[in-house]
Amino acid sequence: MSDDGRRTARERILDTAAELFYREGIRAVGIDTIIARSGVAKMSLYRNFASKDDLICAWLEDTDAMFWAWWQGVVARHPGDPRAQLKALFAALGKWSAHPKFRGCPFINTMVEFRDTEHPGRAIAERHARVLRDHLRDLAAQAGAREPEALAEHLLLMMQGAYAGGRMLGPDVAARAIPAAAAVLIDAACGQDAR
């Protein structure tokens, strides 16, 4: 947001697109709807984003940056304790999946909506998944996992399952079951010293 408290046209467009793409789905939201809801002129939208695909990519890049800021905030609460950091990530995911505005993972949602492997948004979503797996593997290695790659893959699958099924479980179950299941995987992979 601008220092003076007023959002630029680009910020208004991105904020509107973020809300609508996440809540309604990317394909369900047209450019005209984004223009109307953001209160910008069509020319202003196209001055900032050459196409809807450019807007999708900008939204995904912003979402990626927000995800990693969230990640850093969670792990920073447990300095020097990678096992606790892993568990905290899944506790936070459990809480988020129980939130009324939760609609799954924007990256997985993008992959589902765009089956064309050449779509630029899909490339961003795939990159996010690779980097996420790498971060999980690094934390797993730091936590003493016997097979960090395997634990990372298991946790990534669990995270994707939480994104897909968190709402179906109901808020109380999701908030409890997601971190509990992750803790079982983490403790089993990292030895008996459960924390």
List keywords for this structure.
195 residues; mainly alpha; 9 helices; 74% helix; elongated
Question: Could you explain how this protein is built, in words?
Answer:
With 195 residues, the protein is mainly α. Helix content is 74%, strand content 0%. It has helices at residues 9-24, 31-38, 42-48, 52-76, 82-97, 106-113, 120-142, 148-169, 171-190. Helix 7 (120-142) packs across helix 8 and helix 8 packs antiparallel against helix 9 (171-190). The longest helix is centred in the N-terminal third of the chain and has 25 residues, at 52-76. It is elongated.
Write the layout of secondary structure elements.
Elements: H1 9-24, H2 31-38, H3 42-48, H4 52-76, H5 82-97, H6 106-113, H7 120-142, H8 148-169, H9 171-190
In short:
The chain has 195 residues and is mainly alpha-helical. The protein contains nine helices and no strands. The chain is elongated, with a radius of gyration of 19 Å.
Q: Provide a count of the helices.
A: 9
Residue runs with pLDDT of under 50 for 5 or more positions: none
Task: Give the number of DSSP strands.
Answer: 0
- Per the principal axes of the C-alpha atoms, what is the gross shape? elongated
Largest sheet: none
Structural class designation: mainly alpha
Secondary-structure element order, N to C: HHHHHHHHH
Strand content: under 5%
In terms of quaternary structure, what is this?
A: single chain
Helix content: over 70%
User: First CA to last CA: what distance?
Assistant: 40 Å
Instruction: Calculate the mean pLDDT score and round it.
Output: 92
Cα gyration radius (Å): 19 Å
